[in-house]
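Sat 14:20. Reprocessing the chain from the morning session after the first attempt stalled halfway. Input below, unchanged.
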Amino acid sequence: MMYAVVVRSSTQAVEEQKKLEATLSVEVDGARVRISEIQTEMESVIEQLGEAKVSQYLSRTVPLTNSAYWKLIAVVQCIS
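Finished this time. Tokens:
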């Protein structure tokens, strides 16, 4: 009789563990999907950041180059 109680409680414990495992498996699968989504978003942000850095660089260098060009023109006109 005592043996039957132990077997029954062990069987219930195993069933509870299987339910827990199934629940955790669903959560892990959901987390994997979300990680993939976040990685895609992060790649997009990194790409945009790179484009912004190039744009910022060009916006800083082009006016300086343009300004230097006009200064060179002025110097050449003074010499002529």
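The radius of gyration is 34 Å.
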